[in-house]
Design brief:
Strand order of the largest sheet: 1-2-3-4-5-6-7-10
Oligomer: single chain
CATH architecture: Alpha-Beta Barrel
Number of helices: 11
Radius of gyration: 17 Å
CATH class: Alpha Beta
CATH superfamily: Divalent-metal-dependent TIM barrel enzymes
Largest sheet: 8 strands, parallel, barrel
Length: 241
C-alpha cells in the first residue's frame, strides 16, 4: 500500500517551512500528503513543492467557515492546487441547535462543491460519539442527516466508542479515507505501534476494502519527523507479515 501523511504530524516543521515539511514526508517514503493549513503559501508554490517532491495531494483539513463565508475565493484556491477532497477537521456541534444549522449548511455546500468537482468530508474526534449535554449525538446526526462523506479517525473512534472497525462498517460506502494513529484508551496519543489501538485490524480493513491510509501522529515527541518515521516503519512491518 501507499501511505499518506497528514502534515499536522510534522507541524513543528510545517509552521516554519512548509516546503521542507513536504520534502521530509517524501524522503520518509510517504506517497501523498494531506495539508492542515497553507501558512500563506500561494497555489503556485503549493503546486511547485508537490511537483518537485513527487507527492500527491490526497486532501486538506480546511475550515468550514472559510467555505461558508468565502466560497468563491476558497474554492478557487483549492481548484488551483488540484484538491478534490475538502475535509472539515471538526466543528462546534455541541448542541442540537448548532447541529441543525450545520446540517443545513453542510448539505447545501456539499451539493455546491460537487458541481465544482470537490468532495466534502468530515473528520471525527472522540467527542462526536459521546452525547452532548442536551442528549444529541454528533456523529449519529452527521451520518443520518447529512450526505457528507467521512475521513474516519480510527484512534479517536477507539477512544470515543471503543470499536473503530464497527464504525468503518457503519460508514461503508461513504468512507473516503482512514486516519490511522495510535495511543491509549484515555486519549494519550503515541506513534503507530506504541499504543493500544487495534492497528492490525484497521490495516487489514483498509487493505481489503481499498481505503487510503493517512498517517497522523500528534505529539511531536521528541519531534514530528521522528514520529512520522516510526509510523511508516511500523506500516512497512505490517506489509511483511
Amino acid at each position: 500500500m501507499d501511505y499518506g501523511l497528514q502534515l499536522y504530524s510534522i507541524r513543528d516543521i510545517a509552521e516554519k517551512n512548509l516546503e521542507e515539511a513536504v520534502f521530509s514526508a517524501a524522503r520518509l517514503g510517504y506517497k501523498s500528503v494531506e495539508f492542515a493549513g497553507f501558512f500563506g503559501r500561494t497555489a503556485d508554490e503549493i503546486n511547485d513543492m508537490l511537483s518537485r517532491s513527487g507527492l500527491r495531494l490526497s486532501g486538506t483539513h480546511s475550515s468550514f467557515n472559510d467555505l461558508a463565508d468565502k466560497y468563491e475565493e476558497t474554492v478557487a484556491f483549492h481548484k488551483a492546487i488540484g484538491n478534490r477532497n475538502y475535509i472539515i477537521p471538526g466543528y462546534d456541534l455541541s448542541s442540537q441547535e448548532k447541529l441543525d444549522g450545520f446540517v443545513e449548511s453542510a448539505n447545501a455546500l456539499k451539493k455546491r462543491l460537487e458541481a465544482d468537482g470537490i468532495k466534502l468530508s468530515y473528520h471525527n474526534h472522540a467527542h462526536e460519539f459521546i452525547p452532548n449535554a442536551d442528549g444529541s449525538v454528533i456523529f449519529e446526526q452527521l451520518l443520518y442527516r447529512t450526505e457528507l462523506t467521512f475521513e474516519v479517525d480510527t484512534y479517536w473512534a477507539f477512544v470515543g466508542m471503543h470499536n473503530p472497525i464497527m464504525l468503518l462498517d457503519r460508514v461503508k460506502d461513504r468512507l473516503e479515507f482512514i486516519h490511522i494513529k495510535d495511543g491509549t484508551a484515555d486519549g494519550r496519543g503515541y506513534p503507530l505501534g506504541k499504543g493500544c489501538a487495534p492497528l492490525e485490524e484497521i490495516y487489514g480493513y483498509a487493505l481489503n476494502n481499498g481505503i487510503p491510509l493517512i498517517v497522523e501522529s500528534e505529539t511531536c515527541e521528541p519531534d514530528g519527523i521522528t514520529e512520522a518515521e516510526i509510523c511508516i516503519n511500523y506500516l512497512k512491518k505490517l506489509e511483511n507479515r
